[in-house]
Amino acid sequence: MAATEAYTLADTMDKTRQLIRYYISGLKAQDPYQPIEFGGLTFNSIYWLTAHLVWAEDNLIVRSSGGGSVAPQWIQHYHIGGDGTLHEGHGDYKALLDTMKEVHEKALTHLRSLTDDQLAAENTMGMAFGDGDKSVRMMVMHAIRHEGTHIGNYAYLCKMKGVKMV
């Protein structure tokens, strides 16, 4: 079977997430709940950053294309522009990683089900990036580049903590 555009986008998102998980694995010995301080600056905790990626994948891929949320309700605390705090009663980091995996699998299944016409349709959030493109396709592409941006965050967190990854 020939790959559809949706399958290609899903495969690209999956490969990007694999790289995220690689850098997360380098931070296992760190306290995931503690904001990281370096050079007089404070960075979001590993937990917050990871939860934010779950929020983004759910919103940018699933909800923007008309699907119902596949993430737990509490993930909304980790929205863009959030204050960096952990939500009340947050679970342990291992449970968050399990949630990340579950949401990712559901988001990829949803993405692979989209037709070219659905990818070309206007996203349900009415969001546009740069050139005014409001398509579902652009939202998915933004999800992929958003992941890529945060790969850099995890890579720098590893460097800040003296963890050699490459």
What level of helicity do the residues show?
A: 40-55%
Total domain modules: 1
Major sheet, described briefly? 2 strands, antiparallel
Beta-strand residue percentage: under 5%
The CATH architecture can be given as Up-down Bundle
Alpha plus pi helix count: 5
Summarize the structure in words.
This protein is mostly helical and 166 residues long. The protein has a single domain (5-160), classed as dinb family like domain (Four Helix Bundle (Hemerythrin (Met), subunit A), Up-down Bundle), CATH 1.20.120. It has five helices and two strands; from the N terminus they run αββαααα. The longest helix is centred in the last third of the chain and has 25 residues, at 136-160. The chain starts with a helix and ends in a 6-residue tail after the last helix.
